[in-house]
Amino acid sequence: MSNVSYHISNLLEKMTSTDKDFRFMATNDLMLELQKDSIKLDEDSERKVVSMLLKLLEDKNGEVQNLAVKCLAPLVVKVKEPQVEMMVDMLCSNMMSDKEQLRDISSMGLKTVIGELPLSSPVCLCVLFRLSGALVSFHSSLLSSLLPQLTSPRMAVRKRSILALGHLVPCSSPALFSQLTEHLMAELSKGPSTSMSRTYVQCLATISRQGGHRVGEHLEKLIPMVVKFTSVEDDELREYCFQAFEAFIRRCPKEMSPHITTVTQLCLKFMTFDPNYNYDDDEEEDSMDLEDRLDEESDDEYSDDDDMSWKVRRSSIKCLEALIHTRRDMLLSFYSSISPALLARFKEREENVRADVFAAFSTLLRQTRVGTSHHGLISAPSDHHGNQGEEPTVVMLKKQVPVIVKALHRQLKEKSVKSRLGCLCLLTELTHTVPGALEEHIPALIPGIIFSLTDKSSSSTIRIDALSFLHVLLLSHPPQAFQPHMQVLLPPVVACMEDSFYKITSEALLVTQQLVRVMRPLEPTTTTGGGFDPKPFVKQVFSPTLKRLKATDIDQEVKERAISCMGHMVCHLGDHLGAELQGVLTVFLDRMKNEITRLTAVQTVAMVTASPLKIDLSSILPEVLSVLGSFLRKNQRTLKLSSLACLSALLSHYGSCIKPAALEAVLTELPALVDETDMHVSQVSMTLLTCVAKASPSSLAKISSSVLPGVFRLIHSPLLQGGALVAILDFLQALVLSKSTNCGYSQLLKCLTEPFHRPLSAPDCAAVHRQSYQSVARCVAALSSVCPKETPSTVSSLIQEVKSPASPESARVLALLCLGEVGRSGSLGASKEVQGVILEAFTSTSEEVKTAASCALGSMAVGGLNDYLPFLLKEISAQPRRQYLLLHSLKEVISACPSSSLSPHMESIWALLFQNCQCQEEGTRNLVAECLGKLTLVNPAQLLPRLQQQLKASSPLARSTVVTAVKFTIVDHPAPVDALLKDCIGDFLITLQDEDINVRRVALVMFNSAAHNKPVLIHGLLGRVLPHLYRETQIRKDLIREVEMGPFKHTVDDGLDVRKAAFECMYTLLDSCLDGLDVLQFLDHVEEGLKDHYDIRMLTFLMLARLASLCPAAVLQRLERLVEPLRATCTTKVKAGSVKQEFEKQEELRRSAMRAVAALLAVPEVERSPSMADFANQIRTNADMASIYQSVQGGEPGGGLGPAESMDLS
């Protein structure tokens, strides 16, 4: 730091020199220093540099002044806020100076500073507020002055006027904007000269781009005028017409809907407009030598300097691209209309236009990919090789693949680098969109790829793109497709590996890695029918890779990829490397000891360890174990996890070769890693301990006393679940079976259950979390399953524990859950005693005991369906008071049992559930609905139509149960019910129009579940469903009533739950079905929600923040109406005498509203809204609001708009 300060001080001293050259050179050196990422200035240096540069703005030498302005850009991001404020204040003051030159240079400086600052920064907002309203009073006179300039005889003046009008439009009033638009329309309707028509149409395009949605209301009159001018024989005018269409489409997609067909037809007509060239002749000469053909094309291309038709073609293609980008809902029609036309234009002779054709088609592919990722896939009941379950757009695209390849493969060999880059980018997009679709065409594509890799005139960019495309191709297609071409593919890739430019080398190593996989695939699905011999190619790949692996003076990315590439080589071809193998392994060991490459080396060793070739690692094994053990102490979490995974692989595959002494360095580090603070590290550590127990039991005995306490703490932790719990179960089973430690079955059982037997009055007794009961019960069952001889005595003791009145409640609850988990494995049999114990537990006064008995009965029935299910069904019918608990048991049975086991009992369960679907108790009805839904999944073809029939039930309770049941048939993974559900879900959604409010509420909940888990089910129905959804967001006064509570009156809104459900659906649709929404209509209802109840406002604030990110253009259209509700929330204060909860709720509302404001301020062009600028100024000048704004911007944890704000909608 001191060196930097000293150097800066020297430069500042030179800047005061009387010699202008000294000042210039010192300023230039300062700029170079400031552009370095590593430079950090102390506070004093910051102040001195800022003061000096502001002083240099007044320098007598113009070059020094300009250089000082350039220095401000890198400086502004290096200094703290007070210095930025000082800069801005001084620049603003200088702009008011009497000296013209100082005003000019200061305005340039201010523009530079503002350009570098993020919009949300306080300084930027301050500048915005100070300047935003300054010119408002002059807008009208500015417009009056600029409009006559559009008719100036000088073209430069006209263009500058158009530019000025473009800048005026965003901040002008609606009346002024209408005046400008009507003036242009009036002038165009007079039939002006071609030159004037160009100016007016160009001006229209500019104000549309800048004014956005406001031009939408004038489109009905504008479109016919612009369409008329496309028939005028003037290429520039036509170009401006299509630029205007493009601006209309991008800025007013909704208002353009009625005109889409007209504009599309014009684009398709003029994208082929090339009056000076005959493409038919070119097609007749297809047999001509490629080089000759290209030369002839080239001669024709530049034969006419006055030919401007290419501008018309380019602008029409750009217009089509805008259409594809903004109207994803029309993708299917684009594939039948626009796609063939674009494919036909791949032969375009003008290089720049051809690049735009490729860009437009790439946009079509990207939109297709986005569309398919938005929709969950429906599993097809049959024909896995057909097109069932695929998006129709993907099906149509696959049909066009041969035409695409035919049009592109020849262009991959063209001299034009730009064309080849366009081809490669397009093919890469195609491979991402439809993986595997190019398999038949690989022979046609490979010559073009090789040409780009070997052509001496090729730039580094084209080679990197060619390698990148080849890598994507190799990843997404089966190895057999490339094996016949290995002889021609390998040499150019290897040559690229030895290139001097590190990015080419890096990409080539990635490709080589995949080519190694192609030579000898290890995947079971690809080994059959191979017969490819990799031996001739091994040396060709190995030598250059080894050279890169051993090099130390190369880029880190190349080092890492060389390690990974050689790892794949050893993994796939290790048996062909012979004596070279041990040298490679030694290099891997060296790379593990290097801090820069150790992570990649550890991951590579783990991969080699798992190779089916059984590579001999004995030469490096002891040292590898020692190094990996030392990594377990490191703070780098990724390294720790990779080391644990590598150790597990080594023990699994080479356990017999590892001596106990070699493991000591590893085992001493493990106890500290088994901790609830990082569950994933604990899980991987437990997996490693399991491997130790199986491979080296004697080693485990040494550390059991230090490891086991941590394991038991983890088991009793409320955080234990999922993979970590499964890893512990495996470890306990391996530990008991190893019989190497003093901890046998009974000792482990005692340690597991001991905390549950302590009396609550004990001084060191902490309450045991509910999750711990489940974890311990599963551990007990796991131990019993590997010690069957011990199971009868364990079951007896558990039964006695439940029966004993002296047992603490926690011990009885645990005993019941353990019985259930043991029973789940089928170890109980049809024990009358167990059934009696469960029934007795149902009569307990403790709710915890009754719930545990319910879970236990369900688990036992899963393990012994024929023994326990009839008993369970009989009890549900006979014991209405225990029905809720027994239905919980039944739910567990239906959820956990396979369909084949449940089928014989399906009818009896179905009949019983429908007897209880009209129960008055909502909790019981919901349980019945969940059971019905999950039972439907057993035989959807038979049971789903029955649910459909029940929609006609007269009882609203029965209808609500049926609709809720459908919700439970919608799972987040492909299932056989999906195809059937897609056909009939529309009937279930008709209940959104039900007369009963509760039925409508559960219908909304079901719709929300479908939108969240399987949006493809409801995507096609949005047009019918959304009006009913939006209707439920309205406040209904007939559902609001007053309830008297003593001397007070309390308002109750019976429609609140339905409205909340509707807004939750809207929030979900933003993520899953955005392309099916009319965003402006959607925003109308969000706007209403901003004034609703607390819960709904919290939801709409989240939606607004999401919309600002997803649909900024639409949000800008509604901004004036959205600001006021946000302002009202942020400025509202709670009455002084209110309770604490009211203050907390209002504070949370304000914070949530401010998050939405922060998201809006991040939208480009938001500064053009006067009301938003005014509100932002209010926030800045109000200390309370400014504090909240700063905190949600990241001033405190969880303040930002991150994942923490997302809703749980599962």
TrEMBL record:
Keywords: Repeat, Ubl conjugation pathway. Belongs to the CAND family. Residues 1017-1179 form the TATA-binding protein interacting (TIP20) domain. One of its GO terms (biological process) is SCF complex assembly. The gene is cand2. Gene3D superfamilies: Leucine-rich Repeat Variant. It comes from Sphaeramia orbicularis (orbiculate cardinalfish). Residues 279-307 are annotated as: Disordered. This is Cullin-associated and neddylation-dissociated 2 (putative).
